[in-house]
Amino acid sequence: MEIIKINKKDWNGGLAKSRKAYRLYGPIRVADKYFSEFGALAEDEVPDMSATDTRLSPKSIAFPPSEVMLEYTLDENSEDCNIMKVPEKEYPHRAIIGIRPYDAAAYLLVKKNFDTSEVRDPYWCDAYDACTFIGLAVQEPSLLDFSTSTNSGPFDESGLDVLLVDAGDSYLAKVITDKGKAYLKAAGWGKEAGKDAAGKIEALKKKAEAKIQSSVSFDNIRQKSVMELFEADFWEDTAFACMNCGTCTYVCPTCWCFDIQDETHGKKGVRLKVWDSCMYPLFTLHTTGHNPRDAKVQRVRQRFMHKLKYFMDKYEDGIMCVGCGRCIRSCPVNIDIRNVCQLMNG
Amino acid sequence: MLAYIDKIKEISGKLLKDGKVDMVIGFRKGSMPMMNEPCFVREAADVQNLVWDSNCGINLANYLAGRKEKIGIIAKGCDTRNIVTHIVENKIKRDQLTIIGVPCKGMIDRRKVSERFEKEIIEAEEKNGSVIVKSADAEDTLKKEDLLQDNCSICIHRNPVIYDELAADLVEEQKDVDRYADVRKIEAMSAGEKWRYFEDLLAPCIRCYACRNACPLCYCPTCFVDESQPQWVGKTLDPVDSRTFHFLRAYHCAGRCTDCGSCVRACPMGIDVRAFTKKLEKDALDLFGWEAGMSVEERPPLDTFKPDDPEAFIK
């Protein structure tokens, strides 16, 4: 596999050059704060390559908190009256610079829902297809990182087009896909790294993985029946502290549930796709007034069962979690998915 | 405050053993630095899981509304004021509760600690009014008083206002505290400046409602933002809708808010949600001489009527 060496002196220049063909996204340091957020970079802005996990995940690039799906008019004088129309949307090439490998891997998990053999969500898929993921390997994993045990990891290439590895005064860029190769070309980076580059990346990967202190196991969850887990006696204790604030689902890179809302202003209106959360009572409220998940404990159970059991069973794959640790960090009452996974697996 | 825990365990264990309560609500150790998790204990043997330190900022009154059991609850000053509010508002009965009062010297704002370090905090240990913090590449001893939640540093009700047991001697209340310097600053702004101030304040809001859910006052069976027939508020990040939510929520807390700081603590985006509620808390004090949650005997000013009301329009 091809590895390109990017001298850090050529980094900003290359980014600027690539802007001719790509819209750039990356971690942006929040002014006077100790964290960064993922977003579209302004004209002269460079990504914060020293960023730790962004506070919110980068999922919003393809899954914004609210997005117009359809437009309509209620004006009876218009020939389009009451007809839902897809607005014109443009999906220019976007390069997602410095995305964490496990955040990019999360896109693949979300893709399983938005791009199936039966349905294709055009909004998510078109935005995703326009993306080229230029990931940055994580060499200083956080205390809450358990990505190596979720089939991902700090150097996971599965969701990336290029994997950048910080090698001091240069980045080693491992080309994973043709899309990635095209981006590097657009940035003018083409100098082949030496023969020892692959070995160096491998060594740094081993080093980073060894620094990860926490893990989850879900082998037994696979074997257990849904009903056994559903009726387990730990849910009341697990759910007690939860305030149903939904923060975990909003910061999660793999939570993809959404609501559909119509908003009408005067005679014009839009149909929107907006973030939703299984933590909210309204999420499952039926028009009859019945709510199958009326109690907090049911909603907390749903979140963990979906992530750690239903998803695994439905797609015959791993869990719907990449181990970034954001939900643990942001939870105001310290509910820890690692502990819940352990209880379920136990 | 660290020394309180033995007494808390002793009282809790006895209450459970004597069958005076079915459960004790308190905190257990969290899985990351500067965090504890609200929990309940039903067996006397399990009281050893309880912890108490300066990372117990969550208002436990939030866990009481609508419960049917006999409950022992570990409560700081602000928690007890919200328990009073719950009793007054019929969300829990006084005789269901055994309140284990904890005199408080303020809770740590973990964001203030994180802000002082370049890298992630690995460990934080509290010792004699100091916090020894280790990050991935540095170690420092910080004064706890510099790390307090904003509401704690101006708190004038650190002692429980209602209790059945006490985990420690009462602490001295803070005196000569200027509680409303920040509110006065906003009051002095022109209309345009106020508008911009609140626009900037709300810009990061993701409408997750963590502030509402962390608030012990927000127990409406269906919050107005969750009403769907009719739907009062849009669900996008449109500033009009974010504003509507925050302003209405704040007004609903007028004369009820105890400034416990739960909303700020819970906000994942670090918004100073107290900027909304505090003005109303100040008004309740200025106009009615009212501090919420101080007595189970008195009705809140906004749900009482007196024939000798000074305002002519209401007579």
Summarize the structure.
The complex is a heterodimer of chains A (346) and B (315). Chain A is α/β, with parallel strands linked by helices and 346 residues long.
Structure description:
- The complex is a heterodimer of chains A (346) and B (315).
- With 346 residues, chain A is α/β, with parallel strands linked by helices.
- Chain A folds into two domains: 3-63 and 89-211, no CATH class; 219-345, no CATH class.
- In chain A, 32% of the residues lie in helices and 18% in strands.
- In chain A, the strands form two sheets. Chain A has a seven-stranded mixed sheet, with helices on both faces. A three-stranded antiparallel sheet of chain A has the order 4-10-9, with no helix packed on it.
- In chain A, β7 (162-166) and β8 form a beta hairpin.
- In chain A, α1 crosses α4.
- The longest helix of chain A has 20 residues, at 296-315.
- The model of chain A has no long low-confidence stretch (mean pLDDT 95).
- Chain B is globular and about 55 Å long.
- With 315 residues, chain B is of the alpha/beta class.
- Helices cover 30% and strands 14% of the residues of chain B.
- Chain B contains ten helices and eight strands.
- Chain B has three domains: 1-107 and 155-175, no CATH class; 110-147, no CATH class; 178-302, no CATH class.
- Chain B has helices at 4-17, 77-88, 110-115, 150-153, 181-187, 191-202, 210-214, 239-252, 262-266, 274-288; strands spanning 23-29, 36-41, 71-75, 97-101, 121-127, 130-135, 139-143, 165-166.
- A five-stranded mixed sheet of chain B has the order 2-1-3-4-8.
